[in-house]
């Protein structure tokens, strides 16, 4: 349960906050992104954020392959990460935790 609880709480809180902000925004997500990269100080933050997103994407890909999942199974998480950065890895952690729980329950029933 702990493997699911923290990422699930973070996912719900952050996705809810993101949705709230997007509904109230006076400019599109693309316009906002362009304004962020137009100045060196905010561009540095965006670059740093996407470097971390890239590392998270590499980790999700390697973790999925280690678990015997196909490369295609990670594509939705990578796409979500490309747009909403933190939401992709958080969702991956939640789904992975649920899958692990199901595998453990199935293995326990077979014993």
TrEMBL record:
Keyword Membrane: yes
Pfam hit, one: DUF2834
Regions crossing the membrane: 44-62, 74-95
Keyword terms, alphabetized: Membrane, Transmembrane, Transmembrane helix
InterPro entries: DUF2834
Protein name: DUF2834 domain-containing protein
Organism: Pseudomonas laurylsulfatiphila
Organism lineage string: Bacteria, Pseudomonadati, Pseudomonadota, Gammaproteobacteria, Pseudomonadales
């Amino acid at each position: 349960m702990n493997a699911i609880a923290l990422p699930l709480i973070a996912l719900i809180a952050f996705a809810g906050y993101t949705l709230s902000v997007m509904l109230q925004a006076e400019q599109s997500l693309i316009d906002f992104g362009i304004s962020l990269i137009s100045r060196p100080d905010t561009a540095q933050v965006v670059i740093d954020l996407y470097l971390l997103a890239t590392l998270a994407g590499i980790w999700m890909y390697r973790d999925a392959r280690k678990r015997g999942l196909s490369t295609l199974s990670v594509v939705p998480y990578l796409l979500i990460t490309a747009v909403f950065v933190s939401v992709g890895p958080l969702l991956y952690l939640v789904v992975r935790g649920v899958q692990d729980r199901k595998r453990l329950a199935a293995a326990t029933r077979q014993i």
